[in-house]
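hey m, so remember when u said the tokens were messed up on ur end? i reran from scratch. heres the input so u can diff it against urs
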Amino acid sequence: MKPLIRSFALFVKQIFSDSMLATICIATVLAACFIRFGIPLIEIVLCSYFEREAILADYYLLFDLLLALVTPYMICFASAMMMLTEYDENMASYLAVTPVGKRGYILSRLVFPAGIAFAVSIVLMRWFSLTEWPLGMIPLICLLTCLLSVAVALLLFSFSHNRVEGVAMGKLSGLLMLGLPAPFFLPSDVQYLFSPLPSFWFAKLCMERNVIFLLPALLSALLWIGLLSKKFIRKIA
């Protein structure tokens, strides 16, 4: 256990010694502040200008979902970038054969950061969300978004050879978020085109408040993780 903790502590230190990755982690708080205070202010300005009662208010839930997803996404993105740095320096294969082991490497580089992202996401959702959430819904949606963010980290690491490619892939992986606005803006028969995306089911679950959407939300996220983890494990072997 001690080698695992030391490995994770070193990993965190490396992230915060990199100005870009440290900024990405801090940006989660800035994004939360913007959503909590900036969006209502913009709503007041727009309603005054267009002389309407509500413009953005109908989509406050969407902004909350974006907050729940952006927080773990940013943290897992930083984790994937650091793993790519270790891969370039042949550190990933080295750590896999040390007392940390391959399992320990996965825990310290993916599971632990996702756990921290889960806790941070709950706190930010609790204090910075724009809508009222039922008891137990915030931890549930944060768990789902963390699972999707782990899939994003696996995608970035598995299909990138260096950090430059990882940044480009990170922009492309943003397409996984397109499922969030689909239920808000598309007719019911068209929106299901986004059903392969876990983010679509997250939005359906929160909009409908129907537990029936929890199963596809969970299964789709786990399916993405399962498909991407095979290539990830081969790469660090």
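this time it looks ok to me. Residues 20 and 125 are 24 Å apart (CA to CA). if urs says something different then somethings off w ur setup not the seq
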